[in-house]
């Protein structure tokens, strides 16, 4: 049987120019024994699962996967801890760790998306003990149902700009104009004209509410000409008129999947950081793991990432969390804002259109 190749050194100094690594020893602990490797570049030794979410985990990986699965199915941390017999702080720590991983996975994989039609919306989140509500910006690529970006923060010009820059950055430059549909939020028009320019047709749906119900929806073209809109709608296989129903459907999925976002819930969102974590996990789950009911082809249902051609089939939490995160530069606008442009790539998952394995 051919021996498996030794993994790349996870040290940030070595991962840009990987050095040769060799088998070093086997470390036995009370839980299990694990192979260690030695890097010729920096001389350090490392475990086979260094860089994965399971590194230095003292419980079975299966239990870790269960905690993550429950979190994206609407179970609160306290409920997960009770159901699995863990302490709430362990659950919190594991979810934070899994979220870092999910974020790196989303960042590395959601690239070069073919965008015929984009829909964007903001979701209001009430948080514990603060007056101003938080907002979650989401953008979906309608044809593949791919959840492109999520940004948590106040509804400001800066955040709106960051959100659309991030969405634009994840899309491929195409011959036809992208149809971008949003609500009538005051900054949308300005920002989309600036970020997408003549490569898009921008339409808005303005809803009028009375006693919490929609009484009227006005649809209007904001950027582009009528013939451009007809052309863009002609290319879209899903929309026959201006609408934001696909992103609203995604928002409903988000609300129902996270305990703190459900309506009339007692599980309030404690902090912006924890909301961001949960959204990253959910985005990973929604895009890569859960088959989408509207992407049904014969008997098989596809995941949004599969439909977008980013992966060959549905993935599992084990596959995502055991991918190794290695440090390489990244230029996503949101990532640059978040951590100064330095962050992660995923080893063992080929990213389309780059031809490298980083
Ligand atoms: Zn090294």
UniProtKB/TrEMBL annotation:
PROSITE patterns: ZINC_FINGER_C2H2_1, ZINC_FINGER_C2H2_2. It holds the Pfam family HTH_28. InterPro entries: InsJ-like_HTH (IPR055247), Transposase_27_IS1 (IPR051354), Znf_C2H2_type (IPR013087). Transmembrane segments: none annotated. Residues 37-59 form the C2H2-type domain. This is Sigma-70, region 4. It comes from Engelhardtia mirabilis. The lineage of its organism: Bacteria, Pseudomonadati, Planctomycetota, Planctomycetia, Planctomycetia incertae sedis.
């Amino acid at each position: 049987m051919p021996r498996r190749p030794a993994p790349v050194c996870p040290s940030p100094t070595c991962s840009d120019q990987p050095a040769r690594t060799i088998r070093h020893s086997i470390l036995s602990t009370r839980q299990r024994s694990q192979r260690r490797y030695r890097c010729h570049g920096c001389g350090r030794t490392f475990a086979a699962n260094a860089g994965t979410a399971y590194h230095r985990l003292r419980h079975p990986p299966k239990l870790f996967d269960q905690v993550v699965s429950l979190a994206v199915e609407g179970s609160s941390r306290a409920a997960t801890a009770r159901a699995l017999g863990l302490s709430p702080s362990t659950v919190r720590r594991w979810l934070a760790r899994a979220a870092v991983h999910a974020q790196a996975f989303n960042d590395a994989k959601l690239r070069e998306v073919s965008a015929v039609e984009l829909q964007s919306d903001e979701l209001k989140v009430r948080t514990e003990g603060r007056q101003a509500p938080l907002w979650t910006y989401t953008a979906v690529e309608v044809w593949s149902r791919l959840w492109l970006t999520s940004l948590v923060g106040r509804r400001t010009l800066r955040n709106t700009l960051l959100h659309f820059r991030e969405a634009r950055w994840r899309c491929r430059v195409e011959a036809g104009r992208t149809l971008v549909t949003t609500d009538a939020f005051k900054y949308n028009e300005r920002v989309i004209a600036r970020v997408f320019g003549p490569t898009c047709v921008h339409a808005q749906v303005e809803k009028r509410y009375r006693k919490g119900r929609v009484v009227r929806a006005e649809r209007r073209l904001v950027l582009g000409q009528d013939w451009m809109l007809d052309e863009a709608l002609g290319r879209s296989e899903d929309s026959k008129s201006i609408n934001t129903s696909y992103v609203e459907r995604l928002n409903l999925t988000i609300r129902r999947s996270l305990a703190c976002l459900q309506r009339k819930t007692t599980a309030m969102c404690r902090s912006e950081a924890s909301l961001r974590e949960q959204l990253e996990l959910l985005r990973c789950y929604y895009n890569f793991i859960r088959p989408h009911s509207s992407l049904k082809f014969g008997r098989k249902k596809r995941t949004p990432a599969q439909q977008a051609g980013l992966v060959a089939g549905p993935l599992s939490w084990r596959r995502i969390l055991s991918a190794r995160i290695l440090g390489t530069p990244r230029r996503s606008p949101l990532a640059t804002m978040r951590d100064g442009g330095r962050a992660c790539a995923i080893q063992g998952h080929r990213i389309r259109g780059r031809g490298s394995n980083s």
